[in-house]
Amino acid sequence: MQAAVALPVSGLLPTAAAEVEAGRQQVEQAITEFFGEERRVQSGRVTVSVPAISENGYSVPLSVAVDSPMTADDYVRRLLVVSQSNPLPIIANFELGPKAGLAQVSTRIRLADSQRIYAIAEMHDGALWSGFGYSVVTLAACVI
Question: I need a labelling partner for 13 at 20 to 30 A (CA). Which of 35, 77, 98, 111 fits?
Answer without folding.
Answer: 111
